[in-house]
Amino acid sequence: MLKAMKQKWMDKRDQLARQTEERIQGYNTDLQLQMRQRRENDDWTDELLNKDIEKYLYTIHPSFLLNDRVNRALYNRLLARAQGKYSLTLSVTSEMKLALDFYNTDLAVFLRLIEKKGFQLQGNEERFLLTLMNRLSENNYRMYKERYSELDAHNDSLSDAVTSYLQQVPRAYQLETGRLDFFYKFLISEGLLPAGTTKKKLKKIIKSSNKKRAGDHQLERMERRLDRIG
Questions:
Q1: CA distances from 169 to 64, 120, 202, 223 (A)
Q2: Which pTM value belongs to this model?
Q3: What are the angstrom distances between the C-alpha of 68 and each of 42, 75, 95, 161?
């Protein structure tokens, strides 16, 4: 009797163990399936974004988005859009106005297009913006690297590179976001910009160099005036 009860208990224990193992295996199988589907969805999303954003940026070059404040404002608007809310922008700088107009017109149409293809913005705002900014920054760098190729011959020092930049770039555009972002990355790639230097600091260096150049030009003009007198 006791032996039969013990055998029955052992059979029950084995049965419970098998059921537990089956549940664990089923859970692991479901989890693996979900992870595979998530990876496939992520791969599909990344492929769609990279392909369509690359094409899109052949048609437009919104370099003002490379401004950090403008970039953050756009991200907030993307979050608000996905949640059906409105993001208020208090800053009224010229580049912020450009970004707002860009968001409300051209970018809005592009977003609707890729959403029509199956892209889901909500939850993917950061991924979308990161892909957009990486592509934009790469295009911007290549474009100005080709345009200001003479910088390569004048990069023995930060001072030389800045002087060459000021000579090649019209003063009205020297602090424009696209050109500044290019020059900042160029200096870093050449090892000419000290670690930790910000774009704000680079702006100050450019402004200071311009003031010095203006002062030097004044001295040169004065010397020429005096030389003409004899």
A1: 17, 41, 15, 27
A2: 0.74
A3: 27, 11, 11, 24
